Amino acid sequence: MTTFDCADPDARAEGLAAAARAVRAGNLVVLPTDTVYGIGCDAFSATAVRSLLAAKGRGPDMPVPVLVGSWSTIDGLVIGVPTAARELIEAFWPGGLSLVLQHAPSLAWDLGTTRGTVMLRMPLHPVALELLRDVGPMAVSSANRSGHAPAVDAADAVAQLGEHVAVYLDGGPTEENVPSTVVDLTADAPRVLREGAVSVAAISEVLGREVASA
């Protein structure tokens, strides 16, 4: 278990390299995002995802979201990208908006009980984006033990997750301690499953229609 201070350029470069090695080796890393700190791993390693769920103390009934480092990454992850998804991506990515879509059936991943769907987001944080662009899509959940509050700084994540995680990237305290808004695009009409960093009104405005919320 090693923590790297990403405020120091040399430590940041060393930390990102160590985190990339850890992800490729099937280990867990903690990284800052624009919402809360996340615990992440290679999205395509079922073993690593199981380790992530074990570290959090939760089961596969709550699937792990996937973070991506660019808009175009999602084209290879889902069956098709609906117009509504394109419009929301252009308006809010990178940022606090997660999209639930039907994932491509050819993908060999096990993110939990997803029923053929995947939740995707591109975070607005330079450290997270640099790592994602290096290693590719990562399964990332909030960095906390199940039933506890999500970590808002690296020290909080260490206190909760300890030796379960190989590398901690310390990006300082998160500015927005608000979860992402989740929009389900698997049906004909978009539906907001959770309102967070992006308002339902802002989503409705971009799509040009009233969007229902759960």
TrEMBL record:
Gene Ontology BP term (one): tRNA processing
One Gene Ontology molecular-function label: L-threonylcarbamoyladenylate synthase
Record protein name field: L-threonylcarbamoyladenylate synthase
Domain YrdC-like: 13-198
Main location: cytoplasm
Enzyme class of the recorded protein, top EC level: transferase
PROSITE patterns: YRDC
This protein's GO CC annotations: cytoplasm
Family recorded in the similarity comment: Belongs to the SUA5 family.
Pfam families in the record: Sua5_yciO_yrdC (PF01300)
Alphabetic keyword roster: ATP-binding, Cytoplasm, Nucleotide-binding, Nucleotidyltransferase, Transferase, tRNA processing
Assigned EC number: 2.7.7.87
Catalysis performed (reactions): L-threonine + hydrogencarbonate + ATP = L-threonylcarbamoyladenylate + diphosphate + H2O
Localization of this protein: Cytoplasm
PANTHER family xref list: SUA5, THREONYLCARBAMOYL-AMP SYNTHASE
